[in-house]
Specification:
Layout: H1 3-18, E1 30-36, E2 39-44, H2 45-66, H3 72-103, E3 108-114, E4 117-122, H4 129-160, H5 164-184, H6 192-205, H7 208-235, H8 240-269, H9 275-278, E5 286-287, H10 292-303, E6 307-312, E7 315-321, H11 322-326, H12 338-341, E8 350-351, H13 357-365, E9 371-376, E10 379-385, H14 386-398
Parallel strand pairs: 2-3, 5-6, 8-9
Antiparallel strand pairs: 1-2, 3-4, 6-7, 9-10
Helix pairs in contact: 1-8, 1-13, 1-14, 2-3, 3-4, 3-5, 4-5, 4-6, 6-7, 7-8
C-alpha cells in the first residue's frame, strides 16, 4: 500500500466521521440570503468580515483620496454602493460556473460567499475534460465581460466628465474585476486556471487523477510563491497588512489544492467497489419472540452491539437498540418480547449488495447510522460498518487496484 493510498483511505474515514464525503475546506456556517435559478446563496459568517473591510477601505481610503472635500455620509454611501456591485460581480462569476454546470447535467447545491470570495458547490465531478473546461472557463468569461463593461463606462464618464464620483466608483469596479479575472486564471487548483489546466492535462493524458495531481502541485507552487511575496512585503516594504493578507490567501489555496487531490484519489479508491465486496455476511439477528431478558443477557452482554436487526420467519421486520430496551421497566423484561419494542427501519439505513461504496459512505456521512443493513429480495444478506469499508479499501490498496 503506497503512502498516497494510505492517505486516501484515512481521508475517507475522516470524512465519514466529519459528515462529508468530499471533505470541505470549512463547514458551512452562515445565513441564507436568497435563491437564484433554484440555487441557494449563502453568506458564510466570514463573508461579513470582508464586507466590512471593503466598505471601510472604500469609505475611509479610496474615495477620500480621489474625491476630497466630501462628507463622511457621501463617502460611506459611495462605499456601500460600490461594495454592493463588487460582490454582485463575485456572485455573477460563481453563477456563471453554476449555469454551465447545470446545462451540462451537473446540479449545483449552493453558492457560498466567504472570506476569500465565493464557491459554487456542485453535486458531482465532471465526467470528461470538455465539461470540466466549459464549467471552469465560464467564470473568467463573466469577469472579463464585467471588467470590459466597467472600463467602457469609465472611458465614457471621463469623456463627458461632470460625474467624478460615478467615474471613480466604476474605476474601482473595473480594476477589481480585472484583478479577479487575472487571479482566477492563475494555473493552479482550486482557481479556475487550475481547473482549466486540469482539463487540458486530462484531455492530453486521459488520466484525471494524474491531471488533478499536476494542477494541485501547480496550486501549491503558486501558494509558496505568494507566501514568499507576502513575507517580502512584510520584511522589506513594511506593508504588514497586505503581506499578511497575501499569506492568508496562499495558505487557503494550498489547503484547497491538497483537498482537490484527496478528492480525486478518494473517488479512485471507491471506483467500482460495491457493498457486496466489503459487507459482513454473518449478521447477528434477533427474532421477534425473544424476551428482553434474553436479549440483554444473550446479545447485548455477549456481542456488545448497540442494536440488532429483528427478523420474523426469516424476514427482516425492524431493529432493536439498547435505547429501546432501556425504556422498558426491568421487571417487565421477562414477559416482554422483542417484537413489542422493535422499531421500523428507515430507508436510509438499508442498502443493496450492488450499491457502490460511495453511496454507502454518503449515507453514513449524512448523519445516518454507522451500520447499514444490506437487503436482497427482502432478506437480510449482510451488514456494512465503517470498519468494513476501511478494511475493504485497505485490501484494495494493498493489491494495487
Amino acid at each position: 500500500m503506497t503512502l498516497d493510498d494510505y492517505g486516501t483511505i484515512m481521508g475517507i474515514m475522516r470524512s465519514l466521521n466529519s459528515g462529508s464525503v468530499v471533505a470541505g475546506l470549512w463547514r458551512t456556517r452562515g445565513i441564507p440570503l436568497f435563491s437564484v435559478m433554484g440555487i441557494r446563496v449563502i453568506a458564510d459568517y466570514s463573508w461579513f468580515l470582508i464586507v466590512a473591510l471593503i466598505v471601510g477601505s472604500l469609505s475611509l481610503g479610496w474615495f477620500p483620496s480621489v474625491l476630497p472635500n466630501r462628507t463622511m455620509i457621501q463617502y460611506v454611501s459611495l462605499g456601500l454602493i460600490t461594495a454592493f456591485f463588487f460582490f454582485a460581480s463575485v456572485l455573477a462569476h460563481e453563477l456563471s460556473h453554476s449555469v454551465v454546470s447545470i446545462r451540462n447535467g451537473i446540479p449545483v447545491r449552493k453558492i457560498t460567499l466567504f472570506l476569500f470570495g465565493g464557491v459554487a458547490e456542485i453535486r458531482s465531478e465532471p465526467l470528461e475534460p470538455g465539461t470540466e473546461l466549459r464549467i471552469a472557463i465560464a467564470g473568467p468569461i463573466m469577469s472579463a465581460f464585467l471588467a470590459a463593461t466597467f472600463w467602457s463606462v469609465v472611458v465614457i464618464l471621463s469623456i463627458r466628465s461632470g460625474r467624478p464620483a460615478a467615474q471613480f466608483s466604476f474605476l474601482y469596479l473595473a480594476v477589481a474585476n480585472t484583478f479577479l479575472l487575472l487571479f482566477n486564471l492563475l494555473p493552479g487548483l482550486p482557481l479556475d486556471g487550475g481547473r482549466i489546466l486540469r482539463a487540458i492535462v486530462w484531455r492530453a493524458s486521459g488520466n484525471k487523477r494524474r491531471a488533478t495531481y499536476v494542477a494541485s502541485m501547480a496550486g501549491k507552487a503558486l501558494a509558496t510563491i505568494m507566501i514568499a511575496v507576502g513575507l517580502l512585503l512584510i520584511l522589506a516594504a513594511r506593508q504588514i497588512i497586505s503581506g499578511l493578507w497575501l499569506i492568508m490567501i496562499a495558505m487557503f489555496l494550498r489547503q484547497a489544492a491538497d483537498a482537490s487531490y484527496r478528492h480525486a484519489t478518494t473517488n479512485r479508491a471507491m471506483r467500482d467497489l460495491r457493498v457486496r465486496d466489503v459487507m459482513t455476511r454473518d449478521v447477528v439477528t434477533v427474532t421477534v419472540d425473544v424476551t428482553l431478558t434474553d436479549l440483554f443477557e444473550r446479545y447485548f452482554l455477549i456481542h456488545h452491539f448497540i442494536y440488532y436487526p429483528v427478523t420474523s420467519k426469516g424476514k427482516l421486520v425492524g431493529q432493536v437498540s439498547i435505547r429501546n430496551i432501556a425504556q422498558v421497566d426491568r421487571d417487565a423484561w421477562m414477559n416482554t418480547k422483542v417484537g413489542a419494542i422493535a422499531t421500523q427501519l428507515a430507508r436510509e439505513s438499508l442498502l443493496s449488495p450492488s450499491d457502490t461504496i460511495a453511496h454507502a459512505v454518503s449515507r453514513m456521512s449524512r448523519g445516518g447510522p454507522g451500520r447499514l443493513l444490506v437487503i436482497q429480495d427482502g432478506e437480510l444478506v449482510g451488514i456494512v460498518t465503517r470498519g468494513d469499508i476501511m478494511n475493504g479499501l485497505q485490501m484494495r490498496a494493498a493489491l494495487g487496484r
